[in-house]
Design goal:
Aspartate Aminotransferase, domain 1; 3 domains; seven-stranded mixed beta sheet; globular; transferase; transferase activity; AON_synthase_class-II
């Protein structure tokens, strides 16, 4: 990357200054230096700047046309003309921002209608909209569980789930990833009544790209009498006939008390939500501090989210198109000799042998106009170095062929697979 302004704190002056710092400032400066040093000379995965977008997955980076294989725009709806038109109209009618919390002047017609849209989409009576997916987990989990309760969560859970557990005041313990027997053990050993236990899992785990064992885990949780929450952030729009996620695809709706999701992936905007069928959980919005004490979503975002959910609900052809492309991509990557972390799907990771190989491959792909995400420990479960990809319905078949061609060339040159 040529633009040194992306590293405003780097350079010899900072290094010299770091040595004179103490306490909090020293700790943060040392951490900053370690992040910068993590990848040595050359492009740093955390500082890649997209200079222009030509649609959901086509960009210009450093003057080079680049195809994005690392976004969460699985359905390309962030550039859908219907979503853009809805946003534009709301922007003109309602202005740029709500400027207030839902409970203090920020509760507009659009927010209420969006909550109805999500509740209908999930076939549940009640929905709460949050300003991000992270806050949806934070607000919902902290609203549900508090001191004296126990949260059991899948060990591969997203940071927002873990932070929510920490902030809730409840006791929390991980169960082994996708392991109903381990969950059963923890539920059996629990010293609080099952009615005070919340079991948390995801529908689709987006680092490995593996599907959650939602039905099996929820069955165990329900046998004990615990509450079940599933985060469908990545599953929504990808799984299930109605696009509701892995819970729907596994026929586990009746076992799940609360579903949390986000608008920042298939829906193509930003925001989050939770849905529930428990009438007793209606007061949740007044317990969720991440709902109460922050501004509500901008009207333009609300309008496009509503339009996008309508498309996800009805456009099954778009979902089928995504799966066709994702499966072809994954099978071809496997045919080149690479190991994926999970069954083929729209999001997943290619295993690298170590950091040097991962970094080399990531930089070589970027230099040839292919942008994937490089993940290294401690950000990866199992301590693996991974090239994380996502396939979008917006990729053309040529985009996929180009990626595969580049990967094949690099594999031959470097004997990488
Ligand atoms: N849950 C999961 C499983 C996620 O992967 C993410 C984001 N990557 C979130 C929640 C947070 O969503 P958002 O980015 O919309 O805040």
């Amino acid at each position: 990357m040529s633009d040194s302004s992306a590293h405003p704190e780097s350079g010899p002056d900072t290094v010299a200054a770091t040595g004179q710092l103490t306490g909090i400032l020293r700790r943060i400066a040392d951490f900053g230096a370690s992040v910068e040093g993590m990848f040595g000379e050359g492009d740093h995965p955390a500082f890649i700047q997209i200079d222009r977008l030509d649609g959901p997955v086509h960009a210009v980076i450093d003057g080079r046309k680049t195809t994005l294989f690392g976004t969460n725009s699985y359905l390309g709806l962030n550039f859908d003309p219907r979503c853009i038109a809805a946003s534009e109209e709301a922007l003109r009618k309602w202005g740029t921002g709500s400027t207030a919390s839902r409970v203090a002047s920020g509760n507009q017609n659009g927010h209420v209608v969006l909550e109805r849209t999500i509740a209908d989409f999930y076939g549940r009576p009640d929905a709460i909209v949050f300003s991000t997916g992270f806050m949806a987990n934070l607000g919902t989990i902290c609203g549900l569980a508090s001191q004296g309760d126990l949260i059991l969560y899948d060990s591969h859970s997203h940071a927002s789930i873990i932070d929510a557990c920490r902030a809730s005041g409840a006791t929390f313990k991980p169960f082994r990833h996708n392991d109903p027997a381990d969950l059963d053990r923890l539920l059996t050993e629990a010293t609080v009544p099952a009615s005070r236990i919340l079991v948390v899992m995801e529908g689709l785990y987006s680092v490995w790209g593996d599907v959650g064992a939602v039905k099996d885990l929820a069955t165990v949780a329900k046998r004990h009498g615990a509450l079940v929450l599933v985060d469908e952030a990545h599953g929504m729009g990808l799984y299930g006939e109605g696009g509701r996620g892995v819970t729907e695809a596994q026929g586990a709706d009746h076992l799940v008390d609360v579903i949390v999701g986000t608008f920042s992936k298939s829906v193509g905007v930003i925001g989050g939500f939770c849905v529930t069928s428990h009438p007793a959980l209606q007061p949740l919005r007044f317990l969720a501090r991440a709902y109460l004490y922050t501004a509500s979503l901008p009207p333009a975002v609300v309008a496009s989210a509503r339009t996008a959910i309508g498309i996800i609900k009805t456009d099954t052809a778009l979902r089928a198109e995504l799966w066709r492309k994702a499966e072809r991509f994954c099978r071809s990557v496997q045919a080149l000799g690479y190991q994926l972390c999970a069954e083929p799907g729209p999001v997943g990771s290619i295993r690298m042998r170590g950091k040097a190989q991962g970094l080399d491959m990531w930089r070589s792909l970027l230099a040839r106009g292919i942008y994937v995400n490089l993940l290294i420990p401690p950000a990866t479960p199992g301590g693996k170095v991974l090239l994380r990809f996502s396939v979008s319905a917006a990729h053309t078949d040529e985009d996929i062929d180009t990626f595969l061609g580049v990967l094949s060339d690099l594999t031959k040159v470097a004997q990488i697979a």
